[in-house]
Amino acid sequence: MDLPVRFEVIKHQSGTLARAGVIHTIHGDIETPAFVVVGTKGSVKSLMSEDLTQYVGNQVTLANTYHLFLQPGHKIIKDAGGIHSFANWNMPTMTDSGGFQVFSLGAAFGKGVTKFAKGDVESDTSVPVKSELNLYSKKQAEDHGKLCIVDEDGVTFTSHIDGSMHRFTAERSIEIQHAIGADIIVAFDECTSPTAPYEYQKEAMERTHRWAKRSVLAHKRNFEALRTQGLYGVVQGGRYMDLREESAKALSAMDFDGFGIGGSFSKEDLGESLKIVNGILPGDKPRHLLGIGEPEDIVQGVLQGCDTFDCVAPTRIGRTGSIYVYTGLTKETPCGTFMYPETKKINIRNEKFTTDYSLLDSLSDGYVAQHYTKAYVAHLFRAGEILGPHLASIHNLHFIVNFTKKLRESILVNSTFT
Length: 418
Known about the structure:
The protein has helices at residues 49-56, 65-70, 74-79, 83-87, 99-104, 138-142, 170-180, 198-220, 223-228, 241-252, 270-278, 295-303, 313-318, 367-371, 374-382, 387-413, and strands at 6-12, 19-25, 28-32, 34-38, 61-63, 93-95, 116-117, 129-130, 148-150, 154-158, 165-169, 184-186, 230-235, 258-261, 265-266, 287-289, 308-310, 322-332, 339-347. The protein is α/β, with parallel strands linked by helices and 418 residues long. Mean pLDDT is 89; it is low at 106-113 and 119-137. The radius of gyration is 21 Å and the shape is globular. The longest helix is centred in the C-terminal third of the chain and has 27 residues, at 387-413. It has two domains: 6-311, TIM Barrel (Alpha-Beta Barrel), CATH 3.20.20.105; 322-413, no CATH class. The protein starts with 5 loop residues before the first strand and ends in a 5-residue tail after the last helix. It has 16 helices and 19 strands.
């Protein structure tokens, strides 16, 4: 039986772990390195599928298991023929396991927890409650969006929408992802806070490994899914290099089609963490950096052997008026391997842009960048017109997708990133 997800390395860049490749899926190929556009609820906010293909140019879209489970429900998506038919996504798709959302919308809800740690590790009050026995509690159920109880078997959590109580296990997460029908699905994992102490990071990592084995078994029990969907395992370990190394070795020994690198990092340790992990993970399988996608982070990820990236930042910041633009300058990587284009963000709401009739980004070849001025987009935001966030979202996504494509092109020609 042909594998539903296959990875082909086209070229390595000398002196780094960077590589250009192709991920083959039954819904098409993904040329890597690639940025994966996030459509959380089966929707990239305000964008049609045609916007994604015509104006953004993305190759692959990621949906969120947690959110689709709550709305509209995985059974509805399955009955519609899967996420491709339901969302009119005529391209390869991914779903995550739901582990990060269970945590971030549960125990960490409202606490500003992100993928990156800030400052030194401190004691963390956001660590999910552990329990050997989960009993229904009306009081807990009513504390909607803030409950997350982790035990060996899985996670009990309340919906951030209505406070209803639900439970994810490795088997349940895989079952839901089978129903959604994405080309690439992800093993259930426990995502911890960046500030969680070493002892809890190790405990959560080891539990993630046990859940990973159960995820593989659950996937193999569904022959149809095994034929059409590839399964990724998730490397955890937080900011600790020894845990990252241990996790990468444990996951490499399991039967996965690819790997996600999840959990939390510090900005300073990101490159070293990825170097350690990707030096261990099998070279013939794709590696996805989960939830991280600022330009500088993508450069770090590509240098250290990551193939795909996803992040909600381009659309999230776009909806508030932050726009990615090129500066016209280039930057050198810390190791001096190559140069790449410098980027920055502008706040289009600033007063100075109200009479700036230059193109949104004259150095980008995106449709929005080349057809709309800063003054016009500034007017849309100031007037509260929904076209403003729409155009900003298209532009930012095109910018990040094509920034990542430029890195691929540079690997293929073995030259500097220009």
